[in-house]
Amino acid sequence: MNNFQYKKEITVTTALEAVNSNENAAFIAGGTNIIDLWKYNITNPELLVDINGIDELRTIQELEDGGVRLGALVKNAATAYHPVIEKKYPLLSKAILAGASAQIRNMATDGGNLLQRTRCYYFYDPDVPCNKRVPGSGCPALNGRNRMHAILGNSEHCIAVFPSDMCVALAALEAVVNVMGPNGSRSIPFAEFHRLPGDMPHLDNTLQQDEMITSIDLPSNHLYKHYTYLKLRDRHSYAFALVSVAAAFEMDGNEIKKARIALGGVAHKPWRNTEAEEFLKGKTATADNFLIAAENVLFGAQGRGENDFKIPLARRAIVRACMMALNPETQRPGAGPSL
Ligand SMILES: Cc1cc2nc3c(=O)[nH]c(=O)nc-3n(C[C@H](O)[C@H](O)[C@H](O)COP(=O)(O)OP(=O)(O)OC[C@H]3O[C@@H](n4cnc5c(N)ncnc54)[C@H](O)[C@@H]3O)c2cc1C
């Protein structure tokens, strides 16, 4: 039995004060990840600061520049089914709905989704070493069971993957994460929010311990006509991605004006390679060109044994997702080109 204190706060300021009053404090939003981590003895906060009473973080707001601001406490389901998101950012709706289960999406918040932790089996087992859980203790996944693990951006310290679906779409949409801390607010471009493991795999992201996510901004774009989120996994529902692809295009006839491709399930952060997107700019939308882009995205990919299959799987998934994105009609279940 772990003793802990619980406080419910109704303003950002008091919640930040509370969390900064104890260095072993944590926020709780939907609770769908932190409670599991607690039960597995991966985390043991002394003070739990409940932020669910902060109403100002619960709104979806259209911005003057045509973008949209998602409050950190908006539920994943509410985001996915919001008419403005369905219309302007259907890629985001599709990615969210590919994740977890209806019940979990009803509880999970948008801010919490960004901060969920890896599903690496070794991370979840406190009886074995794990550099992410106990820095310097080792990484049994390197030469162990690594079927789910990363093929890109690895280090010799960690090959865990970041499991979110929502964040793959947010990476493709170039979202911006707004945070508040004791010294005021700052905005973090999505590409800089999550980290690669390097020699500090215990740090998943660039949020500081004393900061709170307040909202996520979606910039205005024209990526709502040609898009898809393709998630490949062991079971069709309620399973994390082996490989996922968010693909979106702005098209002029069959010519690609703008391309966005992001991958999930392959790295310690959502993986995006802007060189591959640049390559596609001005090109005709063909499977051959998408294959060249896929090779670009996967440049340097390396398996560790059980996860070798992810490299050809990701290559095929990128081509297939790009083809599907051209025609949203192909997104009906079971439809689409089989590559
Ligand atoms: C069985 C299961 C299956 C799942 N499958 C998928 C899946 O397929 N795809 C997928 O993407 N996700 C999946 N998830 C993960 C789920 O999406 C996350 O657990 C959820 O998004 C986390 O949000 P939350 O609000 O519940 O976070 P919490 O559990 O409340 O918090 C998570 C972390 O974020 C911190 N935190 C929360 N809000 C803030 C904030 N505003 N500012 C600063 N810190 C904050 C907390 O302190 C904690 O460290 C699954 C989860 C479960 C349990």
TrEMBL record:
This is FAD-binding molybdopterin dehydrogenase. The keyword Membrane does not apply. The keyword Amino-acid biosynthesis does not apply. InterPro entries: CO_DH_flav_C, CO_DH_flav_C_dom_sf, Diverse_Substr_Oxidored, FAD-bd_PCMH, FAD-bd_PCMH-like_sf, FAD-bd_PCMH_sub1, FAD-bd_PCMH_sub2, Mopterin_DH_FAD-bd. Residues 1-223 form the FAD-binding PCMH-type domain. Keywords: FAD, Flavoprotein. The lineage of its organism: Bacteria, Pseudomonadati, Bacteroidota, Flavobacteriia, Flavobacteriales. Coiled coil: none annotated. PROSITE patterns: FAD_PCMH (PS51387).
